[in-house]
Amino acid sequence: MMTLLGFLLALVIVVAVHEWGHFYTARRLGIPVVRFSIGMGPAVWSKQMGEVEYRFAWLPLGGYVLFADPRVHDVPAHQLNQVYEQQALWKKSLVVFAGPVINFVLAYVLMVLVLLVGLQSPKAWIAPGAKGTPWAQVSGTETWQIDAINDVKISQFEQLPIQLLRQLASHDELSFSLTNWQGQQKEVTVAAQPWRDLAWSKPQQQLQNWGLVLTMPPLPARLAAIEPGSAADQAGLQIGDLIVTLNGLSVDGFAELSQWVRENPQARVELTVERAGQLLSIPLVVGSRVLENGHVQGFLGVRPQLPEGLESRWWSKEGLPLSDALTQAPQKLIDLTLLTLQAIGRLVTGQSGLEQLSGPIGIAQAAGNSLDQGWLHFFQFIALLSLSLGVLNLLPLPLLDGGHLLLYAVEGVRGQKFSESFLLVWQKIGMVMIVGLTLLAISSDLKRLFGG
Predict the structure, then answer these.
(1) Residue-level pLDDT at 437
(2) Active-site residue (options: 19, 85, 158, 227)
(3) Rounded to an integer, what distance in angstroms lies between the CA atom of residue 190 and that of residue 269?
(4) Helices marked H in 52-139 — which ranges?
């Protein structure tokens, strides 16, 4: 039930926002609109309001805005020069582009909200610094939690780059307040110059340059959470699973599993997991994400189960200040966009198999899982879905927004419109491609669902 509810809610929100972008822009430009539909096919519900019919259709996979066309609609004489096909290319391009843009806006607003309220994130538990790094002078050979820098509280690992930059800009010394696993506390003050001497790069790479690497306590590889849409989710891993072996080799703990995954993006692996007292063999392809330095790192999308009492020591659920949320949200969306494009590129080049495609069933499962974890996780899922829809719609393929923009660009260069026969063939090619990809994605969903 939660899967269906989450799927319908997420899809309606994302599709409605996308189509509203087209609709609102067209109306602002004076282009007459006949219908605004959420869903495809026959109407389940409809209502005529002024010149526009608003409807929900029975197939909730997309939506559309239908513009007035004198060939099929009764268009008043005073509106004949306002219909969509009579508009300048820049106006038509603006209407088309508005759909993906409003998806990006929705993703940004939701991501800011998520960062403001705060999802569970690891505290700043840092491994001993590698030899020669500035952090090595602070940490010695021990793991420490950074509680504060120059009396500025650090509640999450991801706050480190921004706070360190701020302190380096205004102080000649860095005073670290630290706590180790045994609860012992100490203060360490070091000169800021060695930290400044390292040329600034993007946050994740800069942390590594300084020697600041997130670590965790020794934990069994038992799963406490699975990120919707991740490689682990697509493979069918479940909360509570204990990963016993990886390609036949024993997995001694979550840290060992994490290190192997990071070093092996896109690797095909065979996991043995213990679930409800039974051993199961689960094949999967490790996911990936792009680091700030452009390197690709493996990513599974799982979180370890923590022993009683360790949860509060390891995780923080503190939201970011508004200024930080506003500035960090774009970088998160850029990272997600790069991951989406990278995944598309791997499919096109054959580096990933078609089993990595997710269709309606996969999206529904991810939506249901996120809704089960709470509204904030669900908002994060909608942000990801909205972002993905915006990116995919800008691809230069027939029937997609990007395909329309491509035709308009070529039309502008040629100085003449395409023939009706060409546009009909273009649309048919697009329909075949979209239906084919949808069927492949559904087939992939069913194989994952039934283990085929």
Answers:
(1) 80
(2) 19
(3) 44
(4) 89-117, 134-139
Half-sphere exposure of 14 (CA within 13 A, CB side): 31
pLDDT score recorded for residue 415: 87
Asked if 289 and 339 touch (Cβ cutoff 8 Å), the reply is yes
- Confidence (pLDDT) at 294: 58
List the domains of the chain with CATH numbers.
88-119+321-452 (no CATH), 125-210 (2.30.42.10), 223-313 (2.30.42.10)
Q: Using CA atoms of 107, 108, 109, 114 in order, give the dihedral in degrees to the nearest 10.
A: 90
What distance lies between CA 424 and its chain's CA centroid?
34
Q: How far apart are CA 387 and CA 102, in angstroms?
A: 10
Whose tokens are 């869903």? That residue is 39
Structure tokens at 155: 């509640």
Count other Cβ atoms within 10 Å, centred on residue 433: 15
Does this model's pTM top 0.70?
no
CB 203 within 8 A of CB 292: yes
Among candidate residues 196, 221, 218, the one with its CA nearest the CA of residue 209: 196
- Give the Cβ contact number of residue 328 at 10 Å: 19
pLDDT computed for residue 242 by the predictor? 94
Residues of the chain with pLDDT under 50: 452
Q: What is the dihedral of CA 38, 84, 24, 106, to 10 degrees?
A: 70
How far CA 314 is from CA of 275, 302, 306, 308, in Å, comes to 25, 15, 9, 11
Q: How many CA atoms lie within 13 A of 414 on its CB side?
A: 11
In 3D space, the residue among 400, 391, 392 whose CA is nearest the CA of residue 429 turns out to be: 400
The β-bridge partners of 449 are none
By C-alpha distance, which of 356, 238, 363 is closest to 302? 238
CA–CA separation, 92 and 82 (whole Å): 12
Q: By three-state DSSP, how is residue 418 classified?
A: coil
E runs forming strands in 124-264? 125-126, 144-149, 152-153, 173-179, 185-191, 223-226, 242-246, 249-250
Strand partners, 178: 146, 186
Residue 119's pLDDT is what? 73
Q: Supply 364's token pair.
A: 């529904």
d(CA 112, CA 8): 23
Integer Cα distance of 91 and 97 in angstroms: 10
Is 420 part of the annotated catalytic residue set? no
Give the model's pLDDT for residue 26. 95
- Give the C-alpha separation, 214 to 194, whole Å: 21
